[in-house]
Amino acid sequence: MVARAGIVVTGTEVLTGRVVDRNGPWLAEELRRLGVDVGQVVVVGDRPDDLRSALVLLLAHHDLVLTTGGLGPTADDLTAEVVADVQGRPSRLDPDLEGEIAAVVERLSAGKGWRRDPEATAAGVRKQAMVPEGAHVLAPTGTAPGLVVPPAEGTSGPPVVVLPGPPPELQGMWGDVLADPFVQRAIAAREELRQSTMRLWGTPESELAATLRRHDAELDGLEITTCLREGELEVVTRYAPAAAPAYAALEAALRGDFADTLFSPTGETVDELVATALLDRGATIATAESCTAGLLAGRIADRPGSSAYLLGGLVTYANEAKRDLLGVPQDLLDTVGAVSPEVARDMADGARRVVGTDVGVGITGVAGPGGGTPDKPVGLVHLCVTSADHVVAREFRLGGDRAGIRQRSVVVALHLVRELLAR
Amino acid sequence: MVARAGIVVTGTEVLTGRVVDRNGPWLAEELRRLGVDVGQVVVVGDRPDDLRSALVLLLAHHDLVLTTGGLGPTADDLTAEVVADVQGRPSRLDPDLEGEIAAVVERLSAGKGWRRDPEATAAGVRKQAMVPEGAHVLAPTGTAPGLVVPPAEGTSGPPVVVLPGPPPELQGMWGDVLADPFVQRAIAAREELRQSTMRLWGTPESELAATLRRHDAELDGLEITTCLREGELEVVTRYAPAAAPAYAALEAALRGDFADTLFSPTGETVDELVATALLDRGATIATAESCTAGLLAGRIADRPGSSAYLLGGLVTYANEAKRDLLGVPQDLLDTVGAVSPEVARDMADGARRVVGTDVGVGITGVAGPGGGTPDKPVGLVHLCVTSADHVVAREFRLGGDRAGIRQRSVVVALHLVRELLAR
Can you give the residue ranges of the MoaB/Mog domain (chains A, B) (predicted)? Predict the structure, then answer.
């Protein structure tokens, strides 16, 4: 039996979508590595009743429940109190913990020169130092301590791990969570759960589905999810070690049917593959971007160490910039227009020449919502990647809104760089 | 009484964090505009029991429940079936709907030239055409129809609105959802709920908390949430129209205490303010980016119509690029180093000169994780914004990881542009 965990994410800002939750995914991934499956994630605001009913739901269907957020010093930070109540364990002030938190708060505010109301500060510290009877305290990495709260004396049920909201604080506490005996006992039933990913570019989901159906009999014990994003088809499979032969059959089936599009049979992202290929060949790269306006260079630079191959780039949004910075001839811009294969090619070559690199990328397109014409509609993007010896060029008509078209263009560009470097 | 809605988001890829859910936030915002509060959002994978218990939870505490995803043609798409079961309404094949979906599928696959297994396709269509007794069908915008499923005959309870997962499909169906009589009845108790936002830059959360405490007595009826992100402090307040005077008191309090840092009393983002200021002054802008490597230009270009002011930019990751593309003197790079106020200034001026704009931005810093020194640690960023008449320069030591430092640098740069344009 695989142990199961449920997660409560608290925070009105997450509930309303103003902030993207980073803790749920992080915890899910960490738990998966331990062989613990996440069954449900519930997002709640600052209302105690909603938090209470979420806890009751998760406690009924999981071996371990984790909460994130709501541990701050203010009155709307209610998590510890509600968890204590649901687990039937009254809270008491822990004077040692109070002293510890007060010292941290003191140090933090001294460093930043913030004004503080001493009485309110003390009340906040006192609130954060309330510990449910029988709970274990997880030492604060910020100001808020975490808690592991077992069910009430004499009853059985999952423990609740109460974690702070700021991701660095939560992550800093994770080692202590795993070392906690209540937690260890709760997930003792665990069994390794593997997760493997394959990525395809250029295969529609329906073709993959047909292959999966044809091989259905060989794929027992695999939990396969497929997901189309940014034009790539991602196939993520979770399975117990005993199902490894089934996974091998899946991989063989995909390699057989999609030899051309299975660009990552072992899960590397296109970003990783491009970085590795550039490093392996000792090649350098420069970008010339119009509609994406820096997003490609920015994404290449997302990787630590990218300065080994990304020397620079040009954002040439205006036609004059294409002409003056990249040397695209004015008469080319006047005749075929900025969004054309010719200009994409000249941009790629220009980037290579101006920055002095081995590889150049040119992207020019209509991201919309304005600027489309019958000939050159919104979504039309010309891309070109060149080196001294090779040219890879492609025209796309991408769907979606402005952000989607620009994002997809970046992904397409990375794939073209990958193709060029494979030559 | 404000009506409350609960949302179930289905999908293993969302549960494991590989995909960020866009439907929950979109629905929450649409519902908020109608005065409907979202109480809980539950994310579940493809397991029917988890979906069932999530529905039971939400039905118990809300006036309306919405589900997203799990309406596809394959066996792991279970939402309609489970909802029908929970609402106690057996499903029947709707032959008209079956014909309609089959036609759509036919059209879609013809257009893309995909191979298809006719038997599997027919089974998928049949599955998507199963309708719970007494439910309303929402016409498909993709292939999957939506449903509004009332509680079983003779019982009371909230209806469940079953929506497809792809955001454009879901959003395309929203008009029909609002027009549905079951939905209208469920949210009839609604009352307008206003939401107003103020943004501060440079005020710590604790100072704001102190101000809120001091004015506590005047703020009755406001639900205030504060959130620090990317260095900005966002204050979002939800309130019924009757509490408008309390909101005015809040705004006055913030204007009084934080005149210098309250850069957006009416909620505009810094991106909006910069765009408006550039348009108002008819000014153009160019960027020169080292550690951010295009992210600032990319973000300025996020806005439709940005080509009116963003002419271009330079990504000068390597020192040679700073020298050759921007004219930063080699001896300056040799003496004070690339991460210095002098080079940030030269980059800003260089961008302005090379691209030919009114405003130039220079960003140079150590994003890490490598490359830090005792003198110039990871997180040190120098920024400079110049025009013919003004210079705004700032040095920051930003915390966080590589992605965080780069993201924060972009936000800081936007604030400095805002400051320069206000002069």
Answer: 6-185
